[in-house]
Each structure stands twice: as structure tokens, then as C-alpha cells.
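Ticket #4471: complex job returned nothing on first submit. Input attached below:
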Amino acid sequence: MTTLTHLQRLEAESIQIMREVVAETENPVMLYSVGKDSAVMLHLARKAFAPSPPPFPLLHVDTRWKFRAMYEFRDRMAEEIGMDLIVHINPEGVEKDINPFTHGSAIHTDVMKTEGLKQALEKYGFDAAFGGARRDEEKSRAKERVFSFRTAAHRWDPKNQRPELWKLYNTRKHKGESIRVFPLSNWTELDIWQYIYLQNIPIVPLYYSAERPVVERDGTLIMVDDERMPLEPGEVPMMRKVRFRTLGCYPLTGAIESEADTLPAIIQEMLLTNTSERQGRVIDHDSAASMEKKKQEGYF
Amino acid sequence: MATKHLSPELLNERRLEAVRLRLDGHTVARVAQQTGLSAPTVSAAWKAFREGGWEAVPVRQRGRKSGQASSLGEREQHILWRLLAELPSSPLPGWSSQALAEAIAAETGSEVSPRAIEHWLAAQDLKPTPLALAGLARRRSTPGRWYRQQVQPVLERVRQAGGDVWQGGVRVSPLGEQPPDEPRRYQLYLHGKRGALYTRCLPAPPMAEAYLALFERLLAQAVGPVALLFHGAWFQASPEIQAWLKHHPELHLINVAPNLTLGSDPKVR
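Support reply: We reran it on our side without changes. The output follows.
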């Protein structure tokens, strides 16, 4: 009898979760944020249903403020894999030109991400949505179950969660309810990087260190990704060797100074770091218990 | 292997071995052949043994003992930090080690050598080395193509017009994580002829006016046009600098393309 490594165990658990969802729900979808967790989730989905492509589409809730490299990577991956990619942008947000600079990160996130996601789920009638969230990312994510139930209004009640003893998942739901499913719940950031390395999974180049134009905002390094980024009078972006541990909207995502330009170097850096990867996300610091509030309102 | 390339430990081992072989009756030539030392070194080791015994055979430690270097006192260091935060009173584009030494002497009355200041700058990670441009023209790589297409034609034009070529950049020092009480410094620097360093430090990322002060001083001391290869700033995003450059065609600013592995010039340290 062969003993599975911890990564093989995690992989098996994630594949079982994905198959369970496909067997038990009518219209699942995979949320694709183009980050490293999405890359791993997509890789696992392809493994779970090989040789066929996964029997669900990918959904990207776009805010129009992602890094350019993310859009290029997203379109390339969708073409290579041959899966349906649904891109949804909240039309009301576009109409009002909601953006992180004039409206602030909280409103931008609420309108373009939370409302955008709810709109897309309703528009296409999805009753289950895979997400790449992990317990080690943030405290409110740590207490969320693998199968996380949402009311018809997409609200999450952290005090009313189903037990998942012995990895038995109760997938019954009332009419109008939906499930957010997190196959990577038990993975850590280090597991993700090790798996990407071992399986040679393509990721957005922004995760690797390179010289990029950045400005400092309250101690956070923000990359000037396009001409929409407003500079202070007289401000000149500096070219600094940076990389991203997490990817989101570029004005709200902090870079870290790093020399790690290969996967082994990133893993080595990970082993030495003592800060959370989401420390670079401005939206997580909007207010106390920020993420939990957003999740209760329907944020992914 | 030539003796001067041996580590002191290995050289001493061989000198002791040479003396043992000489005691066994081998000739100087034979011992030199066996130990790899030169004949004069074997003779010197043998002479040292005859005059002072085994203790005299090993060579003394090369160079100055650690801790004996003339270090700058707290007062001088404090003055240096203060000076580096300002523009020099002379029309220099930044502080040279010579100018810093003169400024300290004027303020304290004590002599500090420019070399001691250079060592201090290196210890503070404020002594960047110029980019290695020599040989780039022949390299069949991205840096080579960049040099041939974007740098070489400009440098040739400027040199033909009797102008000067400078290198420079902006960087953060120290790099990476640092103790919370240690301030971050944003260093503006230029390398002139033979890699001479001109620098200044700012407590925050330089704004357009800091770069423009540097460019204006650079032009003021030049007799002809100036080509400046600059690394570390994204000037395309600055309307102030673009407008200034439009009115000063005598400054040929060449941005070093990001992520080019050019290395540093090993001849200039």
C-alpha cells in the first residue's frame, strides 16, 4: 500500500469535492479570478474530469481594474483549455463609472465585485459556484465550511453552518438557495506554491519578481499599470523589483519588494515570511471584520 | 599557481612544507617544483626559518587588521547624512566623496580622506557600481540589441559633438526588509568619468523637481551635449519631466530598459 503525500491527499480531497458538486447540483460554475488559487483549482478540475473538459463554465466577475497581465493570461488560458469563459461586468457600475479612486475601495468592491457576482449568478441561474478561497487566507474564511450555503439573497450566515464530519457534505438546499464551494479550503499558501511547482501549472507573470513602475501610497507599493492611475503632482514612478503575493484590482493590490523570480525562490521566500499574503489587499483593511461583513453581503 | 593568488593559510602551509623539504636535503629548485612555490619564496621561507625558527616561517597577515581602519566618528557621520540630504552648495550635480570631505573639513576642521568617505558610503549601501556597457555592442542578446539600437547611436552622436556620457539612477537603500527604526533612503546617483560617483539621499521617493535639479546641474557643468543613461525611474509617466526634456534637447536621456541584466562594471568598484 502506498502512502499519499500531503499534497496528494489535498489533491484527492479537492477532486472528490468537485465531483460531488457536479453529481449533486444542477448548474455549477467555477469562479475564475485569474490568480494562483484559480490556476490550481482549474488544474484540479481538469484532472477531476479528464479526459473530458470540466462540465461547467468559468465565470470571471470583472471590475475593469485588474492588471493588464491578468486579462492577457485569462484570455490565453480560456483559449488553450477550450472551456467556456463567461465574463461579467456590472453594467450599473460601468454606467456610473465606479472606480477605486473616486469612489473608494469599499464602494468599488461592493458594486463591481459583490453585486457583480450576485448579478452573474442570477443571470445564468447557477446553483453552485466553486471558489478558490483558503482557510489560511483570512479569519472569516477560516470558519467558513467547504460547502457554504447562501440564501436566495446571497447572504451568508456564519452562525448557521452545516457540520462536515468525516468529510461528508450535505448538499441539500432549498429553492433559491445556492452553494459556494471551496475545494482548496484546507490548502495553505505554501501548498499552493508547491503544487504549482510540482505540476508545472502556468500562472500570471506578476507573481514573479521583475522591475515594475510603482508608487508608494501609505507605505504600500502600488503598480502603475496603466494611464488611469492618477499620480500626485510631480510624482515620478520608480522602477523597483517587486512581485505580488495576491492579485486583485491593481490600484488596491500592494506589491512586495522581492528578488524571487523563479518558483523555488518564491517557495523559499514563503518559508521565511511571517506576514499574511492578503496584507497587500487594501480592501481587507477597509474596516474591522471587513471581510466577514463583505462575505455576509454576498462577497466571494 | 602564482603565490599571490594563494590564500594566506595555504601559502603558510606550503612555506612550512618547503622548510621541511629543505631540512630533508632537497634543493631549492626541487622544493619549488614540489610545493608549487617560486624559488625566491622557498629561499625566503628557509631564511626566515634559519633566523627565527618555525614561528618565523608563516607570513604575516596581509593588509590592515580589521578594526584598525580609520573610521568616521559619530559627528562626521551625522554631518554626512545631513549633507547628503541637501544639494551641494557647489554646482556639482550631487555630492562627490571629495566634496563631502571638503565640507566636513570646513565644518569640523578635521581632515577626512575622500577614500574613508567612499568606504563609509559602501558600508551604508550607498555606492552603486556603474553598469557594464563595455562589450554590450557585440552581445547577441536582449541587452546587446537594446544597446545597439537605442544607446550606441545616441552616444556616438553626443561624443562626436564633444559631449559627455553619464550614467545614473535612483534606488532604495537598504533593499528588502529592514528594522522599523531604520529609515528608508531613496538615493539619486550619477556616475561620471571613470565611474566617479555623485549622489544625494532623500527620505521619500524623489519627485520631478529632484530629478530636474539633477539634470539642470548636469547640463550647467557640461560644455557640449550630455547623454545620460538612467535606471530606476519611469519618466514617461511624468508630464513635468517630459515637458522639461522637450525644452532641453541637449540632454539625451536614455532610460535603461527594465529587467535588462546588464551587470555592473567590474573595473569600477
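The CA atoms of residues 139 and 173 of chain A lie 26 Å apart. Closing as resolved unless it happens again.
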